[in-house]
Amino acid sequence: MHINELVLDNFKSFGRPTRIPFYEDFTVVTGPNGSGKSNIIDGVLFALGLARTRGIRAEKLTDLIYNPGHADGSGGNTGTGAREASVTVVLDNTDRTVERSQVVNAAGSEDIGDVDEITVKRRVKETEDNYYSYYYLNGRACNLSDIQDLLAQAGITPEGYNVVMQGDVTEIINMTPHERRGIIDEIAGVAEFDAKKQDAFEELDAVEDRIGEADLRVEEKETRLDQLEDERETALEYQSLREEREEYEGYRKAAELEDKREDLAETETEIDDVESDLADERAELDRRQGRVTRLEDELDGLRTEIERKGEDEQLRIKAEIEETKGEIDRLENAIDAAEDRIQDAESDRRDAFVQLDRKQEKVDDLDTEIRSVKVEQASVKSDIGSLETDLADVQAEIDDVDTEYDELKADLAEKKARLEELKTERNDRQREKDRLLDDTRRRATEISEAEARIEELRATLPDLQAEASDLHSELDKAETNQDKIEAVVDDLQAEKSELKSDLDEVVEEIQSKQSEYATLEARAGDDGDASWPRSVTTILNAGRAGVHGTVGQLGAVDGEHATACETAAGGRLAHVVVDDDGVGSDCIDYLKSRNAGRATFLPITEMEDRGLPSLPSHPGVVDFARNLVDYDTEYEGIFSYVLGSTVVVEDMSTARDLMGEYRMVTLDGDLVERSGAMTGGSGGGSRYSFSKSGGGRLERLAGEIEELEDRRRSLQAEIRELDEDIEDARDRAADARDRVRSVESEIEDAESDVEAAEAEIEALESEIEELREARAEVDAEMQALDDEIDGIEDEIGATEAEVDDLESDLADSKIPELTAEADGIRDEIDEKESRMDDLDARLNELELEQQYAEDAIDDLQERIETAQEKKADARDDIREKEAEIEAREAELETKRQAVEELEAELAELKADREDLQATLRAAKTDRDGKRDEVDRIESKLDSLRETEERLSWEIDELDAEVGDYDPEAIPGHEEVQSAIDRLTAEMEALEPVNMLAIDEYDEVQSELDELQERRDILVDEREAIEERIDRFDRQKKETFMNAFDAINGNFTDIFERLSDGTGELHLENPEDPFDGGLTMKAQPGDKPIQRLTAMSGGEKSLTALAFIFAIQRHNPAPFYALDEIDAFLDAANAERVGEMVDDLSADAQFVVVSHRSALLERSERAIGVTMQGDNVSAVTGIQVGDDADPEVPADD
Fold this sequence. Notes:
21 helices; alpha/beta
């Protein structure tokens, strides 16, 4: 691969498109200082992305766009609108250094053409608001990274010194040892291992954090196990007592089962009686429904007759009438339109007559003007004839004069020609002087700019030094900040542990409450929560008259007695209170119609107040439940039915003393039936509640759970916030560590900037001295040109005197007077002929305008005839439409009579239909009454069946709970109750008991084992990461040393060839090369071994070049570009460098910018660059070989 061609367009000093061919071997680009030859190398760097903007001597990309105000093309935009520059590099790839697939991957498209040539183009465009840079690969837009990746596969990289600029040699000389070693770092690619180590260290930090977290969690679990151990033992003992108590409760449920079986038998008998009544009522309902059906069939027949005999026909005729009316309206509208056309035609005719008169007057006026123009034409033509006669007489007199005048004119012309030659020669000398003057001014500007740059650098040095000092202070602050942030992370971790402990306690309490809630909910039935059933909610939301609400909504009780009274009422709290049984029946129908379920309704008129017995005077008796509930007096019967004579007692002991005499309920919600059946345990209360009392036990327990859930969510939210804070703190800790590293890097950059500024000052001072010497040489050339210009001025003065004498002799001749007279006559003839042309043009214009007016008259006459014809046609159309309207009106009258006859017949049929509809309504009323009676009986039957189903379900549930038993083997009630009380007391003595401790202990132990195992895995992972980091360090050193040894060997060979001496690269710390820098030791010729700092300027440059060539030999590339690398070498060393480049060009393409003979004489090709007007660089000639033309025009 090599560069075939470079195209520069508006780039730096190349203000015009310039196409430069390159060749596969050794090419030198040469030209005067400031001609722009280095800009060719800048173009290669720019297009291939091998350097930053400053690397190609520009502050920003827009400085690369050609600007005639600067010799190198830099400078601001002095125009308006968009400006742009582009550079295209055409690479020869016939040897397939890169394959087509690699080019396709870089371009992102198969549409890249032939890859024997690879075209890389870069544009920079500046608009009024911004600037943009674009890359293209074989015409396809792509990114810089795509270009760099593709070139890297061919061995072309920024760190490989493919392109060596003017400052690169000096830069290597001025580098610190660490910076010089960094070059080997880049070439060896050790950054890859640094990146891997950085990733590994980040992984290690993460693993360390996870190990710390695991240690905290292990400690938490071990603490929790200690807490749970005693709770678990208590829970196991409690569980044994509970199982024994459940056995005795089973005996009690067996007694309850016998009672419910008796209730079921009674309900089944009542269902049989109601089913018999329902069958009789349904038979009567079917008879009445049959009569309704018969009447409906008769009514349908009559409706069909009405439609058949009248309504359809009447509607059809009326539709035809409306259609006829519409047709009449259309005809009348057509008549109106025809009358409008008559008026329009008459108006158009009158307007045409007016315009016709005007056009006729204009034709007459034009005739008059045409005659006038023709008269003037004849007069002018006569004047022209007279003037031509006079001109002929004067010309004859001129011809008679002596021929001496012609000879004088010939001498005068010769002298004037010589005078012009002298002036041209003088101007050439003056332009050369001006060019030299411009060169002087340009050099003076360069000196001023260099001096200004030196002053700028010297002014910047204190700031750079102060910046380095500030950065050291900032580093101390960054390290302190890092320590503080890491302490914050530790504090947040401790706070999180405390919150997690609180959360565990809340979760335990929630689980305890949820267990109690589940038990209570199971007792409440299948309907779920403590809200009203769907059927009850449907009735309450319907807004029906006569509905008062549920029992629970109509009563209130204080909190102390709420659990007892709600337990006593039970499910009856959800019964709906209504005015009477009629309202209740309507509500049942309403539920059926909406399929909304079933509900129980309590009619106020049917509920009787059964009174209360005497309250037992026993310690522990509170009162009758009815007396503890507050309700309106109109609901006495309702609450008598709901609560009956249930007595509220303080505790189960009191209830046992009175067992068999009353139905009782304790303040805790334990229920004792008169039969002796006892219901109780944890979670007392009803699933429903008195609304004015603040919710039943189920609702209150749900509220407590919700509060605990809120607390749990709050704690979890706080933990999540802490996690976010911890993550944020860790991020800030990572940022702090990055900041420390960044500041350390900035310190190195700042110190490097100080050294670079000092080196640039030294280089600029040397450049200023060279510019002053060159300006003195130009001043001497300008003085010689001034002397030549003075001599030419003297000869011009003598020649001008001779011209004046000849012109004086010619002035005495009669010829000029006669010539002037002839010229005057000719001018007068020209004036007359011009007037003649004007008159011809005006005549043509008038005749054309007359023709247009006559054509317009013909058009207007035709328009008048057309208007007359339109009026006649419209009148005929009106007469036809009026006749058609008369026929339509006669047809309309016939249809109206037909409609009247149909309406009379339909009136009789409709009267019969109304009589039949009245009979049908009466039959439906009779049927609906019987249907209501059937519905009432069905509702009663459904209620009984519901009771039967409920009793069957309860019997099945109890039977399933009790299982097989011998009624005779059940212990007595007192024995059962005594055992339950004993076991309950023992259980209460153990309470509160965390029953979840049994399972939780096992879960925590399992989690602890899992945590220990995970921690062991993390420790193994940490050790593996540390071993990986050690391996990366070994690989990094091995890779570096391999590259170093190879480059050092190359350096030794090349330095020996360039200087006839010896040299080597030396690591300051061979054991840990990355801890020290890289120095170069050399012994040029017969001199002693020296370090780079002790060498002369030329020896330094030669040593740096040997280092660059050693790098290039280590990383061979297909082409190299070198920009004035021999600038600081003496003739002998330059000769050796020329020989070296000449030899290397056998294996790679070399493009070298230089004007030293050592390189020029050895090059195969030489390209010349000059600076033209407007500071535009141009390729003036290309030497292509001995047999070719010496000069090939540049394509610019």
